[in-house]
Amino acid sequence: MKSPVPSVTDQAPADPAASDDALANQPIGYWSGLAHTAVTRHLRDAMARIDVTQPQYWVLNRVNGGPAAPGREEVVSRLTPLADGPHEIARVVDQLLHRGWLRTDDSRALHLTEAGEAARVRLRSLVTDLRTEVHEGISDEEYVAALKVLRRMVANVEGVTP
């Protein structure tokens, strides 16, 4: 019995109007980049309408999300890989301290203030609504399958077993 041979397709130029039959030839970099840009822009535009940024939301969640209050350095190191630059998260921490959404204690750990927790909850609701909008017409099974494919592609190019 022969081992199954993966199908190989020729790479076609990126075509946003490609038919379903032609999608297997489309470049993943184009489509994943297009999805990233569109979804991120949509999220950031919605947050901007309430005077908040996506990195501010990340910081609020990170400060709220662990068993112990994190220090500034921990928040910066954990979130910098997601940020647009190496100094963005440190600036966001400063913005949130200035805004009164974060405070530090005697050990310099970061904590949400009442206003910060209210903002985090409000943002969580916004993000949940936006997720529903982005996932319109996509079942959980389809979504999981898409993420598994993307995770496998990342593993393939990074030489890691998923």
Q: Can you offer a commentary on this structure?
A:
The chain has 162 residues and is mainly alpha-helical. It is built from 6 helices and 2 strands; from the N terminus they run ααααββαα. The protein has a two-stranded antiparallel sheet with strand order 1-2. Helix 1 (28-48) crosses helix 5 (114-134) and helix 2 crosses helix 5.
Write the layout of secondary structure elements.
Elements (H helix, E strand, L loop, with lengths): L27 H21 L5 H11 L7 H8 L8 H12 L2 E3 L5 E3 L1 H21 L5 H19 L4
Antiparallel strand pairs: 1-2
Helix content: 55-70%
- Approximate strand percentage: under 5%
- Strands in their spatial order, largest beta sheet: 1-2
Sketch the major β-sheet: 2 strands, antiparallel
Query: Globular, elongated, flat, extended or rod-shaped: what is the shape?
Result: elongated
- Count of helical regions: 6
Given helix and strand content, the structural type is: mainly alpha
Indicate the low-confidence ranges by residue numbers. none
Q: Give the end-to-end Cα distance, rounded to a whole number of Å.
A: 27 Å
Short overview:
The chain is built from six helices and two strands. By secondary structure, it is mostly helical.
Name the features:
mainly alpha; two-stranded antiparallel sheet; 162 residues; 57% helix
